[in-house]
Write a structure and sequence with these properties.
The structure holds two protein chains of two kinds. Chain A is of the alpha+beta class. Helices cover about 35% and strands about 20% of the residues of chain A. The longest helix of chain A has 20 residues. By secondary structure, chain B is of the alpha/beta class. In chain B, helix 10 crosses helix 13. Chain B is globular, with a radius of gyration of 21 Å. The chains are: A alpha+beta, B alpha/beta. The complex binds zinc ion (ZN). The site of zinc ion has 8 residues of chain A, from loops.
C-alpha cells in the first residue's frame, strides 16, 4: 500500500434468492418478460393488499446462513424501511433491521498471503424494488416485475485490506451462494449486487472516514473502483484535506468514483416493525434440516479434488460453476478410474462446449457418456487420440461411445499374435533400417512404431506394438 | 321492513315470502328519500344492486340455498375494497385527474364473505378521510349527519355506515374500528357496533390506517343481527398474516344463553371526570337492569386507562405515516405533476390529503424519526403492553367489562372541528380495547333525555371481553338488550 497506508474495506452484498415466487405474494420471479406482467395487488402496493411470507424464501435464506456458519435465530422481525421512489410501490421496503434472522458467520477466501477468514456480521431477508427505466426524452418507466423478489443482504465486517481481497471475498461468497443453489451469481443482470465501504488509515490508527461505493456490477470493476477510492482518499489525507463521508457511484467509462450524496442528505428511513407481518419463526428443525442437506461447498470440493491428484488449477476450473462440478463428480463416480485423467479430458475436450445458464448448464455430453469413453480408453479398446474423435462424434448426441467405436471399426488391435505378424511384415519391408537399428541407430525405433500404426490406421494398441517390436528387434 | 332482524329478513327471502328485489327496492327508496339530508353514501351502486337481487331471486327459483344473509342489503364503508365499485377511503387522493374514483380489482375478504352468504351491496358509505376522525367531518366529500338530529355528528370514522343502519337504509353495514370508529358512531346513532378481536376478521382489502389496530367491524340494529354479521365475516384468511388461525365461535347461539351468573366488571376509570352526567346515568341504569336479570356487577380497575389517548395517537400515527406512503401519484388515484419527482410527490400529497391526514402523517413521521423513536414509538409500545396487562388482571375476576362507549352523546357538527385534541379525547373509552386487541362492542343504552331544546339522544353501553371470547361478549350484550326490552 502506498506510503504506509492501510485500506479498510467492508462489503454488503444483495443476492436474489432463487424462489419460484416473490417474497410476499404469489407472482412469479421471472426476468426479461414484458414490463409489469408479474404483478398483483400485493406487489403493486394497492390499497388494502397485505404481504404473506414465502416459506421457500425462508428455507433458502436459512441455507445461505448455515452455509456461511451464521447463527440462525428462531425469531426475527420484519421492519419497514420508509422512503419514496417510483420503483418502491408501497413507499417502504420490507426488510430486517434491529432483529435480523441470522448473525455472526464467516467466509474463507484465498488471498496472496494464503487463506483468510472474513467475518460476516449478519444476513437478513428483504424484498427487492422494481426497476426504473429512464427514457431519452426524460420520461421514466417503472417495471415492477422485480418488485418483491426475495433478497438476502449479506453484511461483511470491514475485514478486507485490499481491492484483491475484496474481489476474492466476492468470488468466494458467490461460489457459496451458487453451490447451495440459492443464487445464480449474475452480477451483470443484478441478481448479485455489491456495495463497498472503503476507508484508509495508517496502521494502528483508528478507522478513517468511510465512503460507500454503490452498485458496481463486475468483479473487475469492484477491484478498480476500490483501488481508485483508496488512492483518492490517500491523496486527500496526504494533501491535508478531509475525506467526506458520502455515497459514491462508479463511472465505468472514466474508471472513477463520483459523489452521489453526502451523509447530510442521507435518508432517515424511520424503521419500525411491520405490523402486517408477525415475527419470522425459523424452527430448529428447519435449520437442522438445511444444515444436513447442505451440499459440498466449493472450498471443500477443491480440497477433495486435489486429494484425488488434480492440480489446484484443475480444481479451480472444475469448481467454477456448480453444474460443471456436479458433472465432473457424476462422471468421476461412474468412471471410477483416474480422476486426473478424467479432469484432463474434461478440460481439454469437453469444457469448451458447455453453455451456462444461471445455475443450470447445457452440457455437451452426459456424465455417463464421459465415463464410458474413459473406460474404453482404460480398457485399451481405443487410444487416447481416438477418444477425442469418439468424443467429437458423441458430443451433442445421446449416443454411446461404444456405438461410435463399433461403427467406425476403431477398436484397437490388441491381438498380440496378429500384431506380431504385422510387425514382422513391417520389419521385413524395411530390412535396411533394421540393419541400421541393430548397428546402433536406436532412434529408428519410433519409425518402426509409426509404420505399424500407419498400417493399422492408428488402431493398434501402442503398448503391445512397442513390446512386440522390442522383442523382434532383440 | 328494513328494520327487521337480519336473520328474519334472510329467512323470508330464502322461503320466497319476500323477493330479494323487493328488499333491494326498499333499500333504494330509503336511500333516495333520506340520503340527500344525511350523507351516508359516497357511492351508490343501485344498478349492480338490482342486478344482483334479480340474480338471487332467479337462483332461489332454481332451488339454490342463498345463504344466511339472503338478499340482505348491506352498506360498506368506503375503506373496504370492492371489485369494480369505486373506493376512495373518503379521500380525494383516490380520485383521479378526471374525477374518476379508484376501482379496486378485488374484493376485501370480509366483503367476499358477506356476498358468499347472499348479501347485496347498496354502495360505499361515507367516512372520515382514511378513517381518521371521530365525527365524519374529515370526509373529503361531505359530512354525514346523525338521523336523530341532523345538526349533530353521527360519529366517525365509520359515520356513513352507522347512519345507513340507524336511518333504516340497510339492516346492516360494515365499518372499520381502529380506535373506536365503529363503537362510537354506533353509540351516537343508537345502533349496535361490534369490533371483533384483532385477528378475528381478515384485514385483506381494508385500506390500512393503523395496521396493528384496524379491525373490520359490522353494524346492525340489534345484538343478534350484529352477532350474525360478525360470525359471517370472521375466520382465518391466508391472505392476512395477522388473521388468527382459530375456529370461529357460535356467536348467534351465544346470544340465547342467559346472563344469570355472569360477572360484569365495572372499571372505575371509565366513570371519572369528563363523563357526561346523562351518559353515566343511562349506563348505570342499564347495568342495574343487567344485575336484576341475574348478572353480578364487580368493580374493577384499569389503572393505565388515562395513557391510552397518548399511546394511541403515537402508534396509530406512526403506522399511518408509513401506510399512506403508497398514495404517491405514481400508480393510481390523484396525480399533480411537478418539475421533478419530489415536486410530483409534494403536490400530489399536499393537494390529495386533507388537514387531519396531513397532521397525522407528520406526527407519525416525527415519532419514528431518528432520535425520537425511543422516546415516543418505543415508549408507547411499552405502555400499550401495560394497558393489555390491565385487562388481563381484570379478566382474572370477571367475564366481561361494561362501560360507557363515549363520554358524551353526539356533539354538534363543527363543535370540535378546530380543536383536534378535544376530538381525540372523545375516543378515551374506546381506545384501550383497541390497543389491547380485545373484542368490544357498543349497544344502545337508555336514551339521554331531551334538554334545552336538544332532542333525546342515544347513549352507548360498551362491553369488552377476553381476546377471542366474542361468545361471552354477545351473551352479555343480548342479556342486557333483553333486560332493557323487558323494562
Ligand atoms: Zn405480486
Amino acid at each position: 500500500m502506498a506510503s504506509g497506508y492501510e485500506a479498510v474495506i467492508g462489503l454488503e452484498v444483495h443476492a436474489q434468492l432463487l424462489t419460484r415466487t416473490k417474497l410476499f405474494c404469489g407472482c412469479a420471479t421471472s426476468f426479461g418478460d414484458a414490463p409489469n406482467t408479474h404483478v398483483c395487488p400485493v406487489c403493486l402496493g394497492l390499497p388494502g393488499a397485505l404481504p404473506v411470507m414465502n416459506a421457500e424464501a425462508a428455507r433458502l435464506a436459512v441455507r445461505v446462513a448455515v452455509a456461511l456458519g451464521l447463527d440462525v435465530h428462531e425469531e426475527s422481525t420484519f421492519e419497514r424501511k420508509n422512503y419514496f421512489y417510483p420503483d418502491l410501490p408501497k413507499g417502504y421496503q420490507i426488510s430486517q433491521y434491529a432483529r435480523p434472522f441470522s448473525t455472526s458467520g464467516h467466509l474463507e477466501l484465498e488471498t496472496a498471503q494464503g487463506t483468510k477468514r472474513a467475518v460476516i456480521q449478519r444476513v437478513h431477508l428483504e424484498e427487492d424494488a422494481g426497476k426504473s427505466v429512464h427514457g431519452a426524452g426524460g420520461e421514466s418507466i417503472v417495471d415492477l416485475n422485480r418488485a418483491g423478489t426475495p433478497l438476502v443482504e449479506i453484511v461483511g465486517e470491514p475485514d478486507l485490506r485490499s481491492p484483491e481481497e475484496a474481489s476474492a471475498y466476492l468470488r468466494a461468497l458467490r461460489d457459496v451462494l451458487m453451490f447451495v443453489g440459492a443464487n445464480d451469481g449474475n452480477l451483470e443482470e443484478g441478481s448479485f449486487r455489491c456495495d463497498a465501504n472503503v476507508s484508509v488509515r495508517r496502521p494502528g490508527e483508528p478507522l478513517g472516514t468511510r465512503c460507500e461505493i454503490k452498485n458496481v456490477n463486475s468483479f473487475r470493476f469492484v477491484e478498480r473502483a476500490i483501488a481508485f477510492e483508496i488512492a483518492r482518499q490517500i491523496e486527500l489525507v496526504e494533501t491535508g484535506r478531509r475525506v467526506v463521508q458520502e455515497t459514491r457511484g462508479w463511472n465505468e467509462r472514466d474508471e472513477t468514483t463520483y459523489s452521489l450524496r453526502s451523509m447530510e442528505e442521507a435518508h432517515d428511513y424511520r424503521y419500525f416493525p411491520d405490523p402486517d407481518l408477525p415475527p419470522l419463526v425459523l424452527s430448529r428443525e428447519l435449520v437442522d434440516r438445511e444444515r444436513a442437506a447442505l451440499p459440498e461447498l466449493p472450498r471443500v470440493k477443491r480440497a477433495r479434488y486435489q486429494a484425488l491428484g488434480l492440480t489446484p488449477y484443475d480444481a479451480k476450473v472444475l469448481t467454477a460453476h456448480p453444474a460443471i462440478a456436479a458433472w465432473f463428480d457424476d462422471a468421476s463416480s461412474a468412471y471410477g478410474g483416474d480422476a486426473k485423467r478424467l479432469a484432463n479430458f474434461v478440460q481439454t475436450e469437453a469444457l469448451s462446449g458447455v453453455t451456462l445458464r444461471g445455475l443450470g448448464a447445457e452440457l455437451p455430453a452426459s456424465s455417463t457418456q464421459l465415463a464410458d469413453l474413459m473406460k474404453l480408453v482404460d480398457a485399451g479398446t481405443i487410444s487416447g487420440k481416438q477418444a477425442k474423435e469418439v468424443y467429437a462424434a458423441i458430443a451433442g448426441t445421446a449416443r454411446a461411445p461404444a456405438e461410435i467405436v463399433a461403427e467406425r471399426g476403431m477398436a484397437v488391435v490388441s491381438d498380440e499374435a496378429e500384431l506380431t505378424r504385422l510387425c514382422e511384415r513391417v520389419l521385413a519391408d524395411n530390412a535396411k533400417s533394421v540393419e541400421s537399428y541393430r548397428a546402433g541407430k536406436t532412434g529408428l525405433f519410433g519409425f518402426f512404431v509409426g509404420a505399424v500404426m500407419k498400417a493399422t490406421r492408428g488402431s493398434a494398441n501402442p503398448e503391445i506394438v512397442n513390446r512386440v517390436l522390442k522383442r523382434l528387434l532383440g | 321492513m328494513l328494520k327487521q332482524p337480519i336473520a328474519a329478513l334472510a329467512e323470508k327471502v330464502r322461503s320466497g315470502e319476500l323477493a330479494a328485489a323487493e328488499l333491494a327496492e326498499a333499500s333504494i327508496a330509503a336511500i333516495e328519500r333520506d340520503d340527500a339530508r344525511l350523507g351516508a353514501y359516497l357511492t351508490r351502486s343501485f344498478d349492480a344492486l338490482r342486478a344482483r337481487a334479480a340474480e338471487l331471486d332467479a337462483r332461489r327459483a332454481r332451488g339454490d340455498d342463498l345463504g344466511r344473509l339472503a338478499g340482505v342489503p348491506i352498506g360498506v364503508k368506503d375503506a373496504l375494497a370492492t371489485r369494480g365499485l369505486a373506493t376512495t377511503c373518503g379521500s380525494k387522493i383516490l380520485v383521479g385527474p378526471r374525477g374518476q374514483r379508484w376501482l379496486p380489482p378485488y374484493d376485501a375478504t370480509a366483503v367476499t364473505r358477506l356476498l358468499a352468504e347472499g348479501a347485496v351491496l347498496t354502495g360505499k358509505c361515507n367516512m372520515d378521510e382514511f378513517a381518521m376522525g371521530s365525527s365524519n367531518e374529515n370526509s373529503a366529500f361531505f359530512p354525514a349527519r346523525n338521523p336523530r338530529d341532523p345538526s349533530r355528528t353521527p360519529g366517525g370514522s365509520s359515520g356513513g355506515s352507522a347512519v345507513s343502519v340507524a336511518a333504516g337504509m340497510t339492516p346492516g353495514a360494515l365499518g372499520s374500528d381502529t380506535g373506536g370508529s365503529v363503537r362510537q358512531p354506533a353509540a351516537f346513532t343508537g345502533v349496535v357496533g361490534v369490533k371483533p378481536t384483532y385477528g378475528r376478521v381478515s384485514r385483506y382489502g381494508l385500506v390500512a390506517f393503523a395496521s396493528s389496530l384496524d379491525v373490520v367491524s359490522p353494524f346492525a340494529r340489534d345484538v343478534r343481527s350484529a352477532a350474525l354479521l360478525t360470525e359471517v365475516i370472521s375466520g382465518h384468511d391466508p391472505r392476512d398474516s395477522t388473521s388468527a388461525p382459530r375456529p370461529v365461535g357460535a356467536f348467534v347461539a351465544a346470544c340465547e344463553r342467559s346472563i344469570e351468573g355472569l360477572r360484569i366488571g365495572v372499571p372505575s376509570q371509565y366513570f371519572a371526570a369528563g363523563l357526561a352526567a346523562e351518559v353515566e346515568d343511562s349506563v348505570r341504569r342499564a347495568l342495574d337492569a343487567a344485575a336484576k336479570a341475574g348478572a353480578t356487577l364487580v368493580p374493577v380497575s384499569l389503572p393505565h386507562t388515562e395513557h391510552a389517548v397518548a399511546v394511541y395517537y403515537v402508534l396509530a400515527a406512526a403506522e399511518a405515516s408509513s401506510n399512506l406512503s403508497r398514495f404517491d401519484g405514481v400508480r393510481f388515484g390523484a396525480r399533480r405533476d411537478g418539475a421533478d419527482l419530489a415536486e410530483l410527490y409534494e403536490r400530489t400529497r399536499a393537494e390529495g390529503f386533507g388537514p387531519e391526514v396531513e397532521r397525522r402523517i407528520i406526527l407519525g413521521a416525527y415519532v419514528l424519526s431518528h432520535g425520537y423513536y425511543d422516546a415516543y414509538y418505543l415508549k408507547a409500545q411499552r405502555v400499550r403492553t401495560l394497558l393489555a396487562r390491565d385487562f388481563d388482571a381484570a379478566f382474572a375476576d370477571v367475564d366481561v367489562i361494561a362501560a360507557p362507549t363515549t363520554p358524551t352523546t353526539a356533539f354538534s357538527l363543527g363543535e370540535k372541528l378546530d380543536d383536534p385534541l378535544t376530538m381525540y379525547l372523545s375516543d378515551v373509552y374506546t381506545l384501550p380495547a383497541s390497543l389491547a386487541g380485545l373484542p368490544a362492542m357498543s349497544l344502545p343504552s337508555f336514551d339521554a333525555p331531551p334538554v334545552d331544546g336538544r332532542p333525546s339522544l342515544p347513549v352507548g353501553l360498551q362491553l369488552i371481553a377476553r381476546a377471542f371470547d366474542e361468545e361471552t361478549m354477545f351473551r352479555a350484550a343480548r342479556g342486557v338488550e333483553r333486560a332493557l326490552e323487558e323494562r
